[in-house]
Amino acid sequence: MAPERFFLELEPPAPDLAAAPHVVVVGGGFAGLRLCQALAGQRVRVTLIDKRNFNLFQPLLYQVASGLVSAADVASPLRQMVGQARNVQVLLGEVNDLDLERREVVFNGQHYGYDRLVLASGSGTAYFGHEEWRPLAPPMKILEHAQEIRRRLLMALEEAEQTTDLVRRRFLQSVVVVGGGPAGCELAGSLVELMRSAIQRDFKQLKEQDCRVVLVDAVERVLPAMHPSLSAAAAGYLRANGVEVRLNTLVEAIEPGTVRLKPSTAAAGAAPQEEGVDPAEQLRAATICWTAGVRASRLGKLLAERSGCATDRGGRVLVEPDFSIPGHPEVRVLGDLCCYRHTADGAPLPGMAGPAVQMGAWVARDLLNDLAGRPTAPFRWNDLGTMAVIGPLYAVADLRGLRLTGLAGWLLWGLAHLAFIPDTENRITLLSRWLWQIATRQRRALLITGRPDQHLGVDVGLERARSSGTLYAEG
């Protein structure tokens, strides 16, 4: 006998919207949130589905990991941001199947119909076939990841304060960060500053010279997506502030407290290693962090199975110029989940906040124009540049060829991030915290909370959905 199917029938947020087109948005990140904000108050019914009840400002997760800000400073409740609009409904859950013929999504074990579907479920972390490394080297994609990194580092310092074994004390004061992109550079620079400031102010037995932070990547330079001059400036700043930068170096294995390295295949013709550094070695460190790989949400693979659309090697869906998929113009894919190659040079749009926000705004406008029978001008990405903060009052920024480093780069970085933060209260809180930290050099979010390995098996969605075994967390 066929299993019984349950259909979720919800009254629309307002009676006059019963016959309005129904847009289901999966994912409340940069793209999904911006789309919902643009559709708020319009003659459409919008349902936003997310496995978390908040929007997370991922670019500042490293500041949560290093105790600069708290979790609430970088996360805002979705119901407060868009759920109060009369035509927008927020539902907590994780979509685990799609029925494109019936135009239904399946989440929390129930079926929910749509007229238009927008998938913007983001991305997770890739370990390049070594998922066994995840418990040993937490990624940095969700709040629990950042809190786990902070918990591990602070616990290591607390243990170091009580140990008389100098070798173990140096081990406990050592950190390895894998990944030389913006997240890795920002995390490495912030963690070395955290350890030094904490030792100066809060610990009696520890010494600054025993702190060790090693940044490892197989690339030839840090921040490879930025101009070489900015990469050189960032690497120089990191090294000057005590971070060991190991380039052209692969991670061969990760074991408890140990990272085994080997030279990358391109190292022979690449820039030489630092003098006296042997990459074929074992790094001993109590805290290991992973920022090296990105993979698209599993909904990309699921959509490909259900529709026959293509994906790239990272699992991102190859989309049409209007972000739809072949054969299904009613389905749009945005943000980190899509591979948009309809650019002037054919290069896919980068997985950053700027492109995601622009995608969400354009698709919202296109949906409304389509319903009204009006054409929409083609999507054009406005490249606002890239930037990364490397240390206190020091950042590198490339704004359409205008390249800035140091304090000027940091000011531009700060203004840009405050502008992209979707919640006004968080803007004010973050600005006050940054100013306080500049004035006092103190970090206020250094609480040791949670449980060991809290980043694994993160509980999301509804209790009955979790107990059924149909949902799992990505990270």
Largest sheet: 6 strands, mixed
CATH superfamily of the largest domain: FAD/NAD(P)-binding domain
Rg estimate, integer Å:
23 Å
Give the overall shape, derived from the CA principal axes.
Answer: globular
* Total number of strands: 25
Strand content: 15-25%
Span from first to last CA?
A: 37 Å
Low-confidence stretches: 1-7, 463-475
Going across the major beta sheet, what is the strand order?
A: 5-2-1-9-21-20
What does this structure look like?
The chain has twelve helices and 25 strands. The chain is an alpha/beta fold. The chain folds into two domains: 201 residues, FAD/NAD(P)-binding domain (3-Layer(bba) Sandwich), CATH 3.50.50; 197 residues, FAD/NAD(P)-binding domain (3-Layer(bba) Sandwich). The protein has a six-stranded mixed sheet. It has a four-stranded parallel sheet with strand order 13-12-11-17. It has a three-stranded antiparallel sheet with strand order 6-7-8. The longest helix has 20 residues. It is globular. The chain starts with 21 loop residues before the first strand and ends in an 8-residue tail after the last helix.
Brief write-up:
This protein is α/β, with parallel strands linked by helices and 475 residues long. The chain folds into 2 domains: 15-125 and 294-383, FAD/NAD(P)-binding domain (3-Layer(bba) Sandwich); 131-292 and 386-420, FAD/NAD(P)-binding domain (3-Layer(bba) Sandwich). It has helices at 30-39, 61-65, 78-83, 143-162, 166-172, 182-201, 228-240, 298-307, 353-372, 406-420, 424-440, 463-467, and strands spanning 22-26, 45-50, 54-56, 75-77, 88-92, 95-99, 104-107, 110-113, 116-119, 123-125, 174-178, 212-216, 243-246, 249-255, 258-263, 282-284, 287-290, 294-296, 317-318, 324-325, 328-333, 338-339, 386-391, 394-399, 402-405.
